[in-house]
Amino acid sequence: MRKINKMLSALGSTAILAGLGLVNAQAQDEEWDMAGFVENATFYRDGAGISKSRNTGQFEFSKDFGKKFGMNNFRVSGTLRATYDAVYDINDDEYGKNAGGPRSFENAGSTTAQAIYGGNGNSPWGQSILGNGGPPGAVPPGFLFDVSRNPNQGLKVLGEDMHNPNAGVTIGVPVRPCDKDSRGCGLDDYMDFDTNDLRFPEFNDQLDFIRELYFEGSVPTGDMSELFFRVGKQQVVWGRTDLFRVLDIINPVDYSRHNIYDELEDIRIPQWMATAEYRWGATEIFDDLNLQLVWNFDEFRPNALGQGGTPYSILDAGSFFRAMNNCWENGCTVSNFVPAGAIGLDDPGLIAADFAPGVIGIRQVNLPDGHDQGGIKLEGVYNSVGFSLNYYHYYQQLPVLRGDIVSMNAFTGEMADWDHLIAFDIDFPEVDLFGGSLDFYVDSLKTVFRVETTYTQGEEFANTIEPDLYSESDVFRWVLGIDRNTFIPILNKNRAFLISGQVFGQHLLDHELERAPLGDIGMPDWEDNYTMTLLVKGWYKSDTISPQVIMAYDYEAGAGTFAPSVDWLINDNWRLIVGFNIKFGDGMGDQEFDDCRTCNPFPPFTATPAHADPNQSGSVGLSGIQPLGRFRSGPLGSASEEDEFQVTLRYRF
Amino acid sequence: MFKRAATTIAMAAAIGVSHSYADVVDESFYPYREGAPSYEGLSVGMTINASNADQFKEILDPATYEQLKNGWWEMKVGETTSFDLHPNYVEATRKNLGQVSLGDELGQINGFVAGRPFPEEPSADDPRAGEKLAWNYKYGYNWGDSAAIYPFYWRYRDLESGKIERTLKFNFHFLNYKHRVQHEPVPEFADNPSDLFRAIYVQVLEPFDVKNTQLLIHRSSDDQTADNTWLYLGFQRRVRRLSSGQITDAFLGADIMIEDFEGYNGRISDMNWSYQGTRNIMLPFFNHNELELATDLEEKDGYQFVDFGGKGGCFPNITWQLRKVYVLESDPIDENHPISKRTHYVDAQTFTLPRTLIYDRKGDLWKSWLIGQAHPDHHLEKNKGTGVSIDDAFSMLDIQAGHCTTGQFKGQVDPKLNEVKLFTVQNMRAKGR
User: Fold this and answer.
1) Which of A132, A464, B61, B235 is the most exposed place for a label (fewest CB within 10 A)?
2) Are the Cβ atoms of A441 and B253 closer than 8 angstroms?
3) DSSP string, B295-308
């Protein structure tokens, strides 16, 4: 312990303070406050086996140096975390070096494919009728790719864990870690993790094993008021909601750790930031008032969505992106892409196509390089009502696909920015958020109410009407939460249960959706959607045993989650959590949307009989589950096949 | 002649009234000036235990009697001593004597400035005597203008096995915004837009699973306004407003609810109050520095905490005094409240609540609540002369569950530990991580 103290003293007094030019600082007598834990979280997924065997060590430290540098309560704090997820070794057939395999792709209803391939008529990767499997010399160069460089191994069919193709488009997804299979890993610093990156996620270029490291202090400006600073790697938490975020958007979130279900505390990605707060305290009008300025001077980090082949890939976006990047770099097979009749076959079905590199897919990711995210919050308590007014300028933390890149016409070889072509870059547009929140207690109902609302400008969404397949929309989001402690005597006559419910709403003000000859086209995101959450939590045996049920339901997706668990605090050191995470309702397979097969990006070659003008690009609405059904299915529906049994054992010290 | 006579009568009346007022205040604050109460067979230094509990049943509250009779612990009898409250508080009482009255509704009070609102002896004929006693408690000199329990250890214990299941370490802070008598600003803070009367701020230091949990309670001057209560949960890094359901719920798994803090931590208007009589009862009042103190929890300055023993380790090793007590009952107005009533044994001199019996919704005795009171002049150096009866040890015994929570205090009457900025929601965020 003495050694650790010395190390921390060195870290605090030398490294940090030296960095500030404050090496003469002398620590007061107060000792370092240190704590930590080691934990194993092992989850078992129905149909997949072990989906997580995460071993975590976390060490937290802080020290109050008292009055230093003109500041009161000068304090240095930090949190270090190291994780080894053994799932990539224990269950490498599913998530590691042996994941995936050869795959075939649907040619729905194609008599030709049936005759060629037999069985169910599915064609192997890279052997499509419109592609390498077609008559030699008759296939345009845009429908050929080198299978020796892009072989039929280590693949899954996009969405295969959740649904059948159902005559829609699917793509092959390389699912092994990027050091085992580099296909689809060409997006620099985005979803390009090697095995060790996945095993040890904190040990990366951003030094994420330093979860937090900051100093803080306050300068008194009056009896009640003070100026407070906190600078360093930190989490800045706005808002009053659980599980889903409305105002709590300053730190991006790592959904690859456990989708939306881990505590935000554990999955916010800390950023190097500076915050300054002027705290008036109580004033003539307000019980409490403070103004906070936040400057995120760190490099931009998007939300971590997981990558293709990893167990937690929210919306399965990581699989889609990896598949599409492989399409761009190496070519790919897409199922059910073309009506067989369109290439002159006397065949009522659909056939798969092999796309050459540089035709469709995702070319690159454009991570913003500005260190210019920041905002302001005025927060206080007025007449017993807690409130905040917020503004934040940031980069959208979820990616948007912009189809405004130059690519190759599969039929002519011509290079151009083709309208309505599914060839994209990933971007993160700038967003301005205006928001506010309230909380208050209604005594007659014995209930606490929480309200948050935001209005954003600059967010972008997929939109198959637009030539570049995306458009901007202002978004209005709100949440109403209620918390009530209620006795349920039949379950516990001495201790009330916490019942906490929330309704989230989202409205896209510039939503576009039109009816086309073969289906709806436009924005797959719902114009209005509502998500409900409910927490019922009880306590027994001096709060050492705490059962709880979390439920969440996405109204438009028709999908929900039911997560009962029991938290047993064995003693002050040991803690065991056992639970289930069960999905119900509709899955991704129940949601379809315009998949842009009929977008006619290479007119007139790709025009369909439904196109009034074969020389005009634009979708006529043929729909499938992939790729845009995920936006209608949401994080709950797209994880419909991820029922899990979960055990977490933690030792704190 | 007539004029002289009238003047004489007027002066006599004035003197008489003045003398009468003085008597009321002195009798309220110095009940032992004319001598300590006594009881046949009771003597300083003796022990009351299973063998002689019956003899002293009349001066024991029912729960204490049962515990002694069952041999769960033994009571050491100490000398009845005067716990003089701060002279400024007494003077404020004297200054405002006769100017305070109850409003028409429960929870309303008129004319109160500072001091003890109703120092007059309660009368059984007064249907609102209980309410007046409750106001005396609410506006009592409980922790003075401000104080901290710094630190404060809670232990969860099994009554049968004595096993210590959990140990929590806190800091507690108390601050009066109004009706202050000793420390500046007197009598109140200038910036107090919500007209707060009092605030309590709690910070959990240990163990790990609840570390950084913080609780803040704002109590309005208007008793009919609900408290505002916030909880900061370290693992969420978020301040959550609490509903009153959580205030009447076990706090962090202890046998204590937030409403039990200090004996009763709620509004006058949450309860019906009834005065049940005046008695001489054994109460846990003692001199801290004269006790055999605990050796397992050490402070750097050498301070030692009150030790615990008896069955399950649920009972403080202290001495008890025979003291004048007002028996006060409170039953919740809310029909869904988890208890049916409390019986408070109010110390007549200090208006602290050293003994409270809590009954479940069926009317059965549920919990026995003890808060030991230490004389400030026999405690920490900084507490000397403060006139605060120091809460020094507590035991909340859940008789039905066979479980108790014990508390060991380091009470410090030190304004520097209780700056007003500590009692803000924003401070909770700042103190958290």
Assistant:
1) B235
2) no
3) SSSB-TT--BPPPE
Long-range contacts of A456-460 (CB under 8 A, 24+ apart): A456/A431, A456/A432, A457/A431, A457/A432, A458/A396, A458/A429, A458/A430, A458/A431, A458/A432, A459/A396, A459/A429, A459/A431, A460/A396, A460/A400, A460/A402, A460/A427, A460/A429
ipTM field: 0.81
Token pair listed for B15: 């003197």
Of A223, A287, A542, the CB nearest to B194: A287
Across the interface, do A494 and B426 touch by the CB < 8 Å criterion?
no
Host H or E run for residue A60 = strand A49-64
Task: Say what the pLDDT of residue B421 is.
Answer: 86
| Chain pair A-B, CB pairs under 8 angstroms | 153
**If you write DSSP's letter for every residue of A544-570 in order, what string do you get?**
TEEEEEEEEEETTTTEEEEEEEEEEE-
Tens of pLDDT, residues A472-531: 999 999 999 999 988 888 998 778 899 999 999 999 999 999 999 999 999 999 999 999
Structure tokens at B92: 């404020």
For chain B, give every domain's residue range: 135-431
Q: Do A544 and B253 touch (CB under 8 A)?
A: yes
Contact B245 A285 (CB under 8 A): no
Could you tell me the pTM of the whole model?
Answer: 0.87
Residues A181/A174, Cβ–Cβ less than 8 Å: yes
Tell me the per-residue pLDDT of B176-217, one tens digit each, with 9 for 90 and over.
Answer: 999 999 999 999 998 888 899 999 999 999 888 888 899 999
Instruction: Work out the angle at residue A608's Cα, subtended by the Cα atoms of residues A603 and A611, and round it to the nearest 5 degrees.
Output: 80
Q: Which residues of B are less than 8 Å from A277 in CB distance?
A: 426, 430
Q: Which of B229, B240, B243 sits opposite A446 (nearest CB)?
A: B243
Closest CB from A60, A216, A283 relative to B191: A283
- Interface membership of B431 toward A (CB under 8 Å): no
Nearest to A550 by CA among A256, A260, A306, A304: A260
Q: What is the pLDDT of residues A551-589, one digit of tens each?
A: 999 999 999 999 999 999 998 889 999 999 999 999 988
Find the residue in B nearest to A541 (Cα).
Answer: B253
For residue A534, what are the β-bridge partners? Answer: A501, A551
A128-134: Cβ within 8 A, 24+ apart? A128/A333, A128/A351, A128/A352, A128/A353, A128/A354, A129/A340, A129/A343, A129/A345, A129/A351, A129/A352, A130/A337, A130/A338, A130/A343, A130/A351, A130/A352, A130/A353, A130/A354, A131/A333, A131/A352, A131/A353, A131/A354, A131/A355, A132/A354, A133/A354
pLDDT in tens, B234-251: 777 788 888 766 788 888
- Contact status of B173 with chain A (Cβ, < 8 Å): no
What CATH number should be reported for the domain whose range is B135-431?
2.50.20.10
pLDDT digits (tens, 9 = 90+) for A304-349: 999 999 999 999 999 999 999 999 999 999 999 999 988 889 999 9
Q: Kindly list the residues from chain A whose CB atom is less than 8 angstroms away from the CB atom of residue B253.
A: 539, 541-544
DSSP, collapsed to helix, strand or coil, labels residue A120 as: coil
CA dihedral (A443, A447, A450, A451) in degrees, to 10, reads: -80
CA A238 and chain centroid, separation: 19
How far apart are the CA of B311 and the nearest CA of chain A, in angstroms? 19
- The Cα of A577 is separated from the nearest Cα of chain B by a number of Å equal to 13
Which of A235, A288, A542 is nearest residue B426 as measured by Cβ atoms? A288
Half-sphere exposure of A55 (CA within 13 A, CB side): 7
Kindly state whether B433 is in contact with chain A, defined as any CB-CB distance less than 8 angstroms. yes
Residues in chain A closer than 8 A to B401 (CB atoms) = 494
With a CB-CB cutoff of 8 Å, which residues 327-356 of chain B face chain A? 336, 338
- B155 contact A CB<8A: no
Position A67: which residue type? K
